[in-house]
Design a protein that fits this description.
This protein is of the alpha/beta class. It contains 23 helices and five strands. It has four domains: 101 residues, no CATH class; 131 residues, 3-Layer(aba) Sandwich (Rossmann fold), CATH 3.40.50; 90 residues, Zinc Finger, Delta Prime, domain 3; 76 residues, post-AAA+ oligomerization domain-like (Orthogonal Bundle). A five-stranded parallel sheet has the order 2-3-4-1-5, sandwiched between helices.
Length: 449
Amino acid sequence: MSNLFEKAGLDEPVSASGMSDQSQAGGTRPLADLLRPRQLSEVVGQGHLVGPDGTLTRMLNSGSLGCLILWGPPGTGKTTVARLLADGTDLHFEQISAIFSGVADLKKVFEAARDRRRMGKATLLFVDEIHRFNKAQQDSFLPVMEDGTVVLVGATTENPSFELNAALLSRSQVLTFKSLDEEAIGKLLSRAEEALGQSLPLDDEARDALVRMADGDGRSSLTLAQEVWRAAHEGEVLTAEQLGSILQRRAPVYDKSADGHYNLISALHKSIRGSDPDAALYYMCRMIDAGEDPIYLLRRMTVMASEDIGLADPNALVMAQAAREAFQLIGAPEGYYALAELAIYLATAPKSNKGYLAFHAAMKLAKKAGSLPPPKHILNAPTKLMANEGYGDGYRYDHDEPDAFSGQDYFPTELGRRQFYEPVERGFERDLRKRLDYWSRLRTERNSK
């Protein structure tokens, strides 16, 4: 059986422990690097992107590659895919990290890409952790993306909608990478065993524990496997308990890419919606203990503040934002107190999903009705032609009206008046309900005259 180093083109004999002599001396490349896929079909866990009908497969088959943002957890293949895309399109591969690069570095990269382009060679610029660039740095990519100097492929572990400029996103296609499931991690471990010609010295329970320890991160799974091969004595088969002792880490309580993750976040969401602060704290702490990213929890609780509490307590959204800022300022472990405070606040707040329902009702009508023009009386008339067309004719300035309310209609004439938002008799929405009812009576009275 050919070993890993022969496949990698390296003359490194494999010892009885499964690691090369250079590896034992600490000088070899990491196993994850040596096993890096050579073609898209070898990338595991991302069939929706690299499978026979995957987005990237179709893109390469078409011979056209646009700018991309690769979004997903660490160790899911983003860097590998970027390299393979460059190979598959005969582009020069240039890699930088937003952590270590500044404006001066970007200028050098762009200038080199321009020189390369003049020589007939295009450049795929891979930017790792692209979300760490500030707005001005992100804006600097726009000209070279538009004129074709580079094909930008950015990688981020953060939600691009929140972390990247709208201008950058509008010029790129976002591709989502998934955390690797147990089957995908298992494939990586099997490849490592085949490459090294030796099975992992683990019993079945320990092997399952190693997969869970990787927590959806392919690179981590191979790093852990390498540590196991180095640590195990010849002929030894490690148990799960021995594995935990050797690696000094335990398997997470749940796999963040599988059902356990979604079950617990669902339980947290429903506990907050059900006004049970104790259950909310319990599930939140289970997720923190399992290694969940606190920013993910804060994002989900921000959604809950809008979806399930809404204007029944407008301060809920403010609290969610404050909790995120507090955690980012303080960090763990004291920053977890901000998460606890937020969970309790949201669970004990009055609840209303009327804003959420109003949004979806309005969106449904907006899509169905098409491009209906607003009524002319609420349109500005900055030119004489527009004034002659009736723009602004009949508009009543609300501040000049009794109660600062004119009662005019603002919907397109073809639609007539609609009502999407119907506040409940709870919390601050009780006051909003009274206000809207009062305006409704005024509107009826003034439009009947």
